[in-house]
Write a structure and sequence with these properties.
alpha+beta, ten-stranded mixed sheet, about 20% strand
């Protein structure tokens, strides 16, 4: 797990922007955009930043943890722009490959991160941004350790759960670290619009600075699509469903996703129509999905030939197995027939009467028995 500086603020000569973040080498752009929007939401105005507001976002295995405050709370050197006006900022750390380790929760660490980012770019007349700035947080003396998940936390993307000021905010943040789903929470929040505005990816949970009428209040939220800029309810891969369909077009006939469309048809469907004409309906093979005008049992000609070949191979395999069993049976039968201690020998005697005739059996000499008795005794022993 590595920690990277994540700072949203402005420099002396240039407006607010993401001053330090992650490149796509370490973090998908969609996750970085969510981090940026939620950090921006906490620093929309100076109002409410007299006290630090803390933010934790867990998104697709990445974690952002930091604080929104006035620059002067971190370092007076970078507190005013050129006009001069007070500057506000979000300073935090983005954690990649999070493995359940505790996260630092010490003001000195955030001051260190803030100075590392601001010192090389604050006075610059060109708009400079930093990427993948690794920060060492091992010297921190205070950490937040993951705790068992608290069921009162909200993981629904479509609403924000507001908690009253009398809850244990640190316990909620620690519980979020152990959550197996994407989750977000801000604490000591002064303005509702900071966590509810669609433009800034509304949070799932927020501990308000004010006392609410009830301990918990759920507010339905809408999110702004990063592609079309409209407020939507349902999203997929960071964009609304309408934009997703535009970015991932499908053939009107076969329904396969492809970008090579012409008049709503993919290359295969256009080729089939050009051969057979547009009046004949196109059917699609249930196995390979290719378009064809002639199907049998839902399969195209090629798949039918493949199926027939597989059936032939299966029949040959069954024949070989059956033949092997027959040959094995005869081999066992012949071997038993030649065996002296054959348990089935009496069956061979019945089938070969000559072998049980007294004349064909050598008579042993027994004292006290007649020749007739000797013959019967030998037959029985045989």
């Amino acid at each position: 797990m590595k920690s990277y500086a994540f700072v949203y603020s402005r420099t002396k000569n240039h407006d607010y922007r993401l001053l330090a973040g992650l490149s796509e080498q370490f973090c998908p752009s969609s996750v970085s955009k969510v981090f940026e929007n939620r950090a921006h939401g906490l620093v929309q105005t100076n109002e409410g930043l007299g006290q630090p507001q803390w933010l934790l976002v867990k998104e697709k295995g990445f974690i952002l943890y930091g604080m929104a405050c006035m620059n002067r709370d971190l370092d007076e050197t970078y507190s005013m722009d050129k006009n001069p006006r007070p500057i506000r900022c979000f300073v935090g750390m983005a954690l990649t490959d999070y493995d359940g380790a505790p996260i630092p929760n010490e003001m000195a660490i955030f001051k260190m991160v803030f100075r590392i980012v601001m010192s090389p770019i604050f006075e610059s007349y060109t708009q400079k941004n930093l990427k993948d700035v690794v920060v060492d947080v091992s010297n921190a003396s205070s950490f937040i350790y993951p705790q068992p998940f608290i069921t009162s936390l909200n993981t629904d993307y479509h609403k924000c759960r507001l908690f009253s000021t009398n809850v244990d905010a640190n316990a909620l943040v620690a519980s979020c670290l152990s959550c197996q789903h994407d989750i977000s929470i801000a604490t000591n929040v002064a303005l509702r619009k900071s966590v509810l505005t669609p433009l800034f990816n509304p949070l799932m949970n927020a501990v308000m600075r004010e006392c609410l009428s009830s301990e918990i209040e759920d507010v339905v939220v809408r999110h702004m699509c990063s592609s079309c800029g409209e407020d939507k309810d349902d999203f997929k891969e960071g964009v609304c469903l309408d934009c997703y369909e535009k970015l991932h077009p499908k053939c009107q006939n076969c329904g396969r996703e492809t970008k090579d469309l012409e008049q709503g048809l993919c290359n295969n469907c256009r080729r089939v129509q050009s051969v057979k004409g547009e009046n004949n309906p196109i059917q699609y093979c249930e196995h390979c999905g290719n378009g064809s005008y002639h199907l049998q049992d839902g399969l195209c000609e090629k798949c039918l030939m493949d199926l027939a070949e597989e059936q032939k191979k299966l029949k040959r395999k069954k024949y070989y197995i059956f033949s092997g069993f027959i040959i094995l049976f005869f081999l066992i039968a012949i071997g038993l027939k030649k065996c002296d201690n054959n348990p089935f020998q009496r069956f061979y005697l019945k089938s070969d009467p000559e072998r049980i005739q007294p004349n064909n059996i050598e008579k042993p000499h027994y004292n006290g028995f007649s020749s007739e008795q000797d013959s019967v005794f030998q037959i029985v022993n045989y």
